[in-house]
User: Fold this.
Amino acid sequence: MDWFNHLNPTFQSLIISTIKVVGVFGAVLTMFAYAVLAERKISAWIQGRVGPNRTAPPLALKIPFLGALLQSWGMFQPMADGLKAFLKEDFTPNYVRKAYFWLAPAISMVPAFLVLAVVPFGSKLGNEPMVIANLDVGILYTFGIVSLGVYSIVLAGYASNSKFPFLGGIRATAQMISYEIAMGMSVIPIFLYVGSLNFSDVITWQANNGWLILYSPISFVIFLIAAFAETNRLPFDLPESETELVGGYHTEYSSIKFAMFFMGEYAAMILVSAMMVTLFFGGWTLPGLSTPASTIAAGLLHIGIFVAKLLAFMVLFIWVRWMLPRFRYDQLMDLGWRRFIPLALANILVTAVVLWMKAN
Amino acid sequence: MIVKREKLTFWERLYLPAILGGFKITASHLVDTLFRGNNAAKQTSKGYYPEVPWTVGQNYRGAPYLVRDQEGHTKCVSCQLCEFVCPPKAIKITPPGPDGKPADRANAEKMPQEFEINMLRCIFCGFCQEVCPEEAIFLQKDYSLSGLSRQEMIYNKEKLLSLGGTHGGIQKWKHKLEEAKEQENFPVKV
Assistant:
């Protein structure tokens, strides 16, 4: 590490940030691959099937016991899925608006990855805080960027120049307007409690005072439901809704472009799970394990805790898909505008009054 | 009749009972499959598909094939009723024409020169079987048809006959022939 200490600080932080960015990027892509597997397996179990249990690369079955076990768990399936996505024919219909058609999948993953940069995924490794960018306006930045996620869907709907994607795009805009407001307002009580917009401060506050879900359960419920709408997952997968709109906004897409939308959806799921863990469930802390790590092992443990909480939310997302039927278009708007926005406003008001009375 | 709609209670309008119900049923299925190994494949045929083929039901409608009679003769007489009735136009019959090959069984007027079924078009509706006056075509139990090209999925007469096997039952034309022969003898036995 001698050569590292001799570098000037700008270079040092540049190298460290690059390592963190690559690490998070790799972790999220791996998580995406295995989240797809988890989705397929869990849905299979719920429906009384066995799920993918056949794929194995050559030679893998030569490994005694372990090879066959991994095969039956479908552990090699993501590789096959990825390879398939790359090798399939990438078909572009001749009636699409080409530039936008190419642009839409390209920007589908960007917002999720941009936001993941400000989420603290661990306490410390050595002296380095485990967050890529410790922004003081973390939450504002988050909501600013997350809203851009809808552009890829709307653009895809417009660019495809055909009716089902178009309807999907329109639904996405309507859904986004109905939910973004409630979602944004639902977290305001959190910041009334914490007094800061920085995610790291939110975690520190929770380490000292207990998880925020205990203080503001209504915020959590609104945020959770809005998160389902935000990520276009059932029961709010209106832009996609296979049963009505064929494939919704990605009807005309194939091969790796389709896979990009898929990745975008899962990246968004990972992102909102990370946000819920950070905002309501104490981030990387557990009761009794909430001081920032001083050793590498403790630092890794904190990252492990964060990832475990995040995965629990991912399982919830997958499970709910089979639990509830899709909402109708107008029911969703009704829920957003007439139920959640007033509820979120009341929640802010009540929290403010309670805090004011406590202060006096 | 006008169905009277019950007003939902506040508890029901909260949507929570529905969520709980959904959770309960999915969880019970998940536990059943995951920990008790109670999946559909095991329940129906004691194993998984490619190794343990599916046993189809008695009234299953699989791929339509031509059949031969007990003596190994083509039953089809090229009447083309199945070709006309076929909703997706999957069947194509080439009749023998005035100087084609005669039928390979006695007393039948003709047999098809070529009989093709495009299995990619076939919808397994069973109209051909129903309409056939000769009991020459039957929907059998093959459900797993595959090929590497479109051409390969057009089954010709030879293939259809070899896949179809023989089918018993009355031999209408043989019967008629015997009747006709009987009439040669005088006086006619009744």
Remarks:
- Chain B is about 35% helix and 10% strand.
- The mean pLDDT of chain B is 85.
- Chain B touches chain A through 15 residues (CB under 8 Å).
- The beta strands of chain B are 64-66, 91-94, 114-118, 137-139, 154-155.
